[in-house]
Amino acid sequence: MRDELESRGKMKIASFKHSATFRTTPTEMVEVSYLAGWAQQGTFSFDEFFKNLVHEVLPPVNEEDINSPSSADQQPPGVNGGYRRSDSDTGNRLTILTGPPFAEAEFLQPLFRDARKELVDLCNQVETRLEKLRKEVAAYDAKHGKRIGELEKGVDGLFVSFGRLDARISGVGQTAARIGDHLQAADAHRDVASQTIELIKYLMEFNSSPGDLMELSPLFSDDSRVAEAAAIAQKLRSYAEDDLGLPGPLHTSAVKNTPNASMGLEVAVANLQDYCNELENRLLAKFDAASQRRELSTMAECAKILSQFNRGVSAMQRYVASRPMFMDVEVMEQDAKTVGEPGNIAKGLNALYKEILETLQKESATVTSVFPSPDAVMSILVQRILEQRVFAVLDRILEKPTLSNPVPMDEGGFLKYLRTLAIAVEKTQELAKELQTLGCGDLDSEELAEALFSSHREEYSELEQASLNQLYQEKVVELKTMGPQADPSSVGPGTPRGAPPRASPPPAGGQMVMSVSVVAEFVRWNEEAVQRCTLLTPQPVRLATNVRAIFTCLLHQVSQYTTEGLERAQDALNEAAAMRERFMLGSTVSRRVMAAAAAAAEAAAHAGESSVRAFMIAVQRATSNVALVQQHFVNTISRLLLPVDGAHAACCEEMANAMSNAEGAALKGLKVCIETIVAEAERLLTAEQKAADYRPLDDGNPPDHRPTTACVRVVQYLARILEFVQSSLEGLNKQAFMTELGNRLHKSLINHWLKFQFSASGGLRLKRDVSEYADFVRSFKAPVVDEKFEQLGTLVNVFIVAPESLPTLLDSSLKLARKDALRFIQLREDYKIVKSTTDLFN
Predict the structure, then answer these.
(1) Running DSSP on this structure, what letter comes out for residue 755?
(2) How far apart are alpha carbons 837 and 842 in whole angstroms?
């Protein structure tokens, strides 16, 4: 029952207090007062209701005593009728009584029954009221839904009405706009008609009588209305000329002589032309006077009016022509003086162009404040500066030479003109860029600056090539005048320690020695020429063509210089060979002649060694020369040839062909070097080798295991040669040279040893020599040569073994060299015994 009351008590029944009736007993009054409070608060609590119901019957309960765990024990038995309350309930609710019934129960039971009855009645009344409210709400919802539907239909109708109204308003607006346009057009036509009537009136005044300008309206003579008069005069002249069908400004004679002209306007055209000319001249005079007085406002007013006459070109030209830089002779003389010093062309042009830019900046401020179209004025001013002032200065400093009449080198040659031209072009291009930045309208100042040098670019490539050839010829004359130069390699690898340096023999005919620094100078000339070409030839295709021609000049110069240097070094080799042949004597001469010849041969040998050293140095320098050219091609030339198809490959082929002559001279000289080296080795072998070296006397002394004197001298000589050959040659050239030298040395040694007879101990001495030669030629790093000398070491064993062991030796290690072995066996001193005891020669 309690749960049902609590659930029902939570319902909202604000109107309950108006419909409920209770009895007027004290208990009922309590109920009414609480229920009235419950109705006002809108919520129901059973605990609060019960407290209000029984608080007069039951004594008040102390909650602290209830919650205290010792309250029951401390309470006397007689309190509350001997009954105690349970501690299980907490909060503000009334605790449940436990124990025997208490005395107040009789009073509480009717009270509870009445309260229950009243609560049930109240609940029924609330339910009845709620049901009635539900029905009322449902009826109201139905009525409201119906009303909403009607409103929606009405709103839709309103939207349709608004759409029709909007369309109507739009149509009315468009009609009003059309009417406004018509009215505006009509007003414009009316204005045009009024202006036309007024213009016709003025036109009739100009058409009254030829040359009569006195009867015109005051407008055309009022100085305060000059702008309006100018505008009307221009319109009248345009209408009259259109009517006559004649374009442009015309004179009276031209009008009279014009066929098919409309009659009646010839006089007007002539008078208008005269009036416009007179008005323009008057305005120009006023403009000039104001310009001299620096009255910018008056100048601006005149310029604005004059802009109606041929767009104001006459005023612009008049202003530009009146600038001091074009009229003052002192300014022109100062310009010539500024750039007149030959050694300071760049400095002079910098000063002149700086002064021009400063003047233009000042003029730009004036032009902007005076003319309606300042860009057009600046365009005319910049064009006049470039074409008159700058051109005059350039024409003064650039005296173009001719190929038929070259400038001598003592006066600077072609190079002086080309350097001046490059400086002028560079500085003028910088000026043009500054002018373009400063502002010059539609004028392309850079293109106009390029046009100033058009005549100088026509034969530029030919002049550049002529300059390079002129420099080369001058350098050759200078080198020949200096005579033979000291050879830096005279104190070189071939000079023995502690010995004084041997001076290289002078080149044939007193010619100069080839130098890498000279070729480096050629390359610097070419680099400078390429830089000028890049500056003076901006078009990529033409630039590639010119650069190729310039590089071809370098190829010819380096090829000729290198080839001649190698040929001069080869001439020294030939002279040393001729000297050597001159002192080769037979064996029938006397000892005195032999001694003199030996001394001369020694001198010839020294000359040959020096000439070989000099040629090796020449080859080394030739290689460096080619490397300089190749580096210049890679770093500078190749990228400039790319715009032209095939130019790069063709230029590489030209470079190979140009260096082929030098390569041929180098190969030919290297062959002569080998001949000279081998001839000196043969001379040493002939002079130092004794027959007793390989057939020593049997004097009881132990055999000598040292190399022979001839072997030692030859190895020492070859070591000196090898030292500067190793430092001069490289790559395949070095490998081929060392291989050929080793082969020739091998052949010469065999031919030399075939002249001697060998004993067993002499064979051991020969084997020692061969071992010495083999050890030395290993430094050649030529496998073919090493193999030959190893075979030679095996071959000389035929002088050492006993006769009966020779067949075995030939059939084993000397099987492939049997023919050479048989030749060596014939050199044994016991050859007859070998021949008789063996069948090797059968």
Answers:
(1) T
(2) 11
Give the residue among 704, 700, 709, 840 at the shortest CA–CA distance from 765: 704
The alpha carbon dihedral of 693, 696, 702, 703 has a sign of positive
Joined together, the tokens standing for residue 389 give 């002032």
- 366, containing H or E segment: helix 345-370
Which two three-digit tokens encode residue 224? 């305060």
Query: For residues 259 and 565, what is the distance between their CA atoms, to the nearest angstrom?
Result: 86
CA distance 93 to 85: 12
Distance CA 326, CA 321 (A): 7
- What tens digit of pLDDT does each residue of 715-761 get? 999 999 998 888 888 888 889 999 999 999 999 999 999 999 998 88
Contact 115/31 with Cβ under 8 angstroms?
Answer: yes
Bridge partners of residue 85, in order along the sequence = 97
Alpha helices by DSSP H, listed for 583-707, are 591-632, 647-688
Measured distance CA(728)–CA(673) in Å, rounded = 13
Of 218, 240, 215, 244, which Cα lies nearest the Cα of 229?
218
Q: Are 721 and 612 in contact (CB under 8 A)?
A: yes
* 3-class DSSP state of 786: helix
Q: Are 821 and 798 a contacting pair, CB within 8 Å? A: yes
Question: What would the 3-class secondary structure string for 396-427 be?
Answer: HHCCCCCCCCCCCHHHCHHHHHHHHHHHHHHH
Is residue 200 scored above 50 in pLDDT? yes
The tens digit of pLDDT for each residue in 86-111 reads 444 444 444 444 455 566 777 778 88
Instruction: Please choose, from the candidates 502, 725, 488, the residue with its C-alpha nearest in 3D space to the C-alpha of residue 602.
Output: 502
Answer yes or no: is pLDDT of 83 > 50. Answer: no
Strand-pairing partners, residue 758, are 828
Report the candidate in 81, 77, 31 with the shortest Cα–Cα distance to residue 53: 31
Tokens coding 4: 């049902």
- Collect all residues with Cβ–Cβ distance below 8 Å to 538 and sequence separation of at least 6: 450
Residue 78 has φ and ψ, to the nearest 5°, of -75, -10
H helices of 207-295, in order, are 226-244, 252-256, 266-293
Q: What is the dihedral of CA 737, 766, 603, 584, to 10 degrees?
A: -90
Mean pLDDT of the region 601-611: 82
Residues 6 or more apart whose CB falls under 8 angstroms from that of 789 comprise: 742, 746, 770, 773, 774, 777
pTM: 0.64
Structural contact between residues 39 and 5, judged by C-beta atoms closer than 8 angstroms: no
Q: Half-sphere exposure of 80 toward its Cβ, with a 13 Å CA cutoff?
A: 16
State the Cα–Cα distance between residues 455 and 400, nearest whole angstrom: 9
> How far apart are alpha carbons 818 and 355 in whole angstroms?
97
The per-residue DSSP string of 25-76 comes to: SHHHHHHHHHHHHHHHHT---HHHHHHHHHTTTSPP--HHHHHSTTHHHHS-
- Interval 112-155: pLDDT, tens: 888 888 888 889 999 999 999 999 999 999 889 888 988 988 89
What mean pLDDT is reported for the chain?
78
For the segment 187-214, the average pLDDT, to the nearest whole number, is 68
Cβ contact 93:81 at 8 Å: no
Q: What are the tens digits of pLDDT across the range 616-672?
A: 999 999 999 999 999 999 999 999 998 888 888 999 999 999 888 889 999 999 999
Which letter, b or e, does each residue of 157-192 get, where b requires 16 or more Cβ atoms within 10 Å of its Cβ? eeeeeeeeeeeeeeeeeeeeeeeeeeeeeeeeeeee
pLDDT value at residue 752: 93
Residue 522 burial (C-beta neighbours within 10 Å; 0-12, 13-18, 19+): buried
3-class state of residue 474 by DSSP: helix
Find the Cα–Cα–Cα–Cα dihedral 477, 483, 484, 485, rounded to 10°.
Answer: -80
